[in-house]
Design goal:
294 residues, Rossmann fold, 2 domains, six-stranded mixed β-sheet, two-stranded antiparallel sheet, 8 strands
């Protein structure tokens, strides 16, 4: 394992406020997505076929970026995601444990449908800074280690190029929240899709967030969230008669058309597919709209 940065050169750059650019890459779609299991730090969870395609596409997507360093979470799905890019750039991949997936403790490997019934679920959604997973770690601790790692790696490269970090949804969201000056209790508002790119530029003046959740495509924007959640079971829509317009302009009930079912209350397990909670598509990310992360 490579040693994380933090030596005198990095300290000098931080002291003098040299600009540094950080590219945050979430791993490609994993095999845990379709299984509906919270992967966490489970061994052997790799990218699936779609995730492998996303990883290969990064070579062209990032071809015009000046990348000086690649850092990865130790989880296999992250290492697989950056492998094609690293090979094309001739760069070694630095592994940093501080960028690892959240240690979900006793929640690891459990079906997401079961986790939605846990009392801790609501805390994770509404007060994540206070959430500590049973026999695991707290999200506040995750944020502290992730932000420290991100800033340290950015300081090492300085203006020589960008540092690319491949990590996990909640880890990346916590780094973005720090850069935005956002309290961790609000980080659920951030969406970090598989293989998405976010960009932060650290300067002596302030931190600039230049990209968030850039997937390289605008496909799906404006589409109802549930229509995107192809891997999620969907509740049959309610129907009501559609008005029939007669020749004289009067209307009468006729064929049925689908309408949206009433929205479940925030935090309600019935709304797990769209309430910014775990689902089969988000691979353990706790915030945002998981149905858009396919």
């Amino acid at each position: 394992m490579n040693t994380p940065p933090g030596g005198s050169a990095a300290s000098a750059r931080r002291e003098h406020g040299h600009p540094a650019t950080l590219i945050l890459l979430r791993h490609g779609r994993s095999t845990a997505n379709s299984a509906g299991i919270l992967a966490g730090r489970s061994a052997g969870v790799d990218v699936d076929a779609t995730g492998a395609e996303q990883a290969a596409a990064l070579v062209d997507r990032l071809a015009e970026c000046r990348i000086a360093r690649i850092v990865s979470s130790p989880q296999l799905r992250c290492r697989s995601t950056v492998a094609p890019l690293a090979a094309s750039l001739g760069l070694a991949v630095t592994i940093d444990e501080r960028l690892a997936e959240v240690d979900y403790g006793d929640w690891t490997g459990r079906p997401l449908s079961e986790l939605a019934q846990e009392p801790l679920w609501r805390t994770v959604q509404t007060h994540p800074s206070a959430a500590v997973f049973p026999n695991g770690e707290g999200l506040a601790a995750v944020s502290a280690r992730a932000v420290a790692a991100a800033r340290a790696h950015a300081a090492v490269v300085g203006e020589s190029g960008a540092v690319l970090i491949c990590s996990h949804g909640d880890v990346i969201a916590s780094i973005l929240a720090d850069a935005l000056g956002m309290h961790l209790d609000l980080f659920q508002r951030l969406v970090v899709s598989p293989a998405s790119v976010s960009v932060i530029r650290y300067t002596a003046l302030r931190t600039f967030v230049e990209r968030i959740n850039d997937t390289g495509s605008l496909a799906g924007i404006g589409t109802p969230a549930m229509a995107l959640a192809a891997t999620m079971p969907m509740t049959p829509p309610m129907t009501e008669p559609a008005p029939h317009v007669s020749a004289d302009g009067s209307t009468a009930a006729s064929a049925a058309v689908s309408i949206a079912a009433p929205a479940a209350a925030p935090g309600d397990p019935a709304n797990a597919a769209t309430d910014g909670v775990f689902d089969a598509a988000n691979d353990g990310m706790l915030g945002g709209d998981p149905s858009a992360r396919i």
